[in-house]
Amino acid sequence: MIARARPRAVDVVSEPDLAVARLAPEVSYKAKAYQALKQAILKMDIYTTPEPVMLDERALSDKLGVSRTPIREAIAMLEQDGLVKALPRRGIVVVRRTKAEIVDMIRAWAALESMAARLITTMARKRDITALRDVFKDFGPDRLPQDHIEEYSRANIVFHQALISLSESQVLVDMTDDILIHVRGYRQLTIGRKERIAASLPEHLAMIEALEARDTELAEKLARDHTLRLADYVEAHGQELFA
């Protein structure tokens, strides 16, 4: 009898280590509630009165159309961000910073905005820089900012946010977002003071001129000094702002 050849054993190949990421689940109500509440808080004017700004969990649940569980979870995330604080037997308060903390934040904004100005002079399109003038087109010798404080205050905030945006740096945008609610609040709170509003428009226009001229060093200096003057004002007069 002829012996048949025994078949060769097949080498077992282990499963390759595929570089695949776990599929992301559908965005949860918690994440949606967190994003909605965060954006709403960042748009709040929390420094217009000395009274604390309180959030009601039940009202938020009704407004967002979700149960209170994702609201509680979103609030916990916002508390980790330092935007809100849960107070026993009182509710949820939007966090306001001390004067010293605000001064520190404004100084940080000055550094970030001066870098934005530097980037704008080297990267931004001419028409986008010139468009900054449109922010203040309704103000001039015949229509002074001090006679239209609320309107000018809004233009002031738009201008400073536009500078950050024109830098085309997402890092600068993200970093300023974290302190925007506080710096914006104090800009609005101080812009009506006569010591500041008279110089505000000329300083803004000088910054635009330096940006248009692509004068990097001057634009950077003007942007930094403009915001540092706000820091100095808050440091000197912060206790009077709610008087």
Automatic annotation (TrEMBL):
Keywords (A to Z) from UniProt: DNA-binding, Transcription, Transcription regulation
Statement: the UniProt record of this protein carries the keyword Coiled coil: no
HTH gntR-type domain: residues covered: 27-97
A Pfam family this chain is assigned to: GntR
Domain of life: Bacteria
Protein name: GntR family transcriptional regulator
UniProt organism field: Rhodopseudomonas telluris
